[in-house]
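Q&A FORM
Asked by: J.P.
Topic: structure of DUF736 domain-containing protein

PROVIDED:
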Amino acid sequence: MTTNCIKFTSADIETAKGVGSISTLTFDLDITVEPVASSNPMAPTHRVLGRSPRGKLVECGGIWKKQNKETGADYYTLTIRDHGFNANLGKAANQDDLSLQAVIPWGPKDAA
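REPLIED BY: S.T.
REPLY: Here is the structure written out as tokens.
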């Protein structure tokens, strides 16, 4: 598995499960993503799960579906809470497989 990517079980990301890896200078995390069924429009589309230092699977973030205000195109964002990590998901470089999404960091919300 390439780092900073999530491989979903299908190109229909909103309902697909996935596995991936996120690596930065401060953390290295293997993740599992599971779809969330909710009627709340503010709810995430996925739970993001990672392993604790003792190996337990714990929820550590989420993925949300958003819409570009200018174009109306849908896109996904990812947050890892404990690290203040935020990213967009997008087509992985040199890939035609829409089920393979790159994790594209954009920094913490409070960064100046």
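FOLLOW-UP: DSSP finds no helices and eight strands in the chain.
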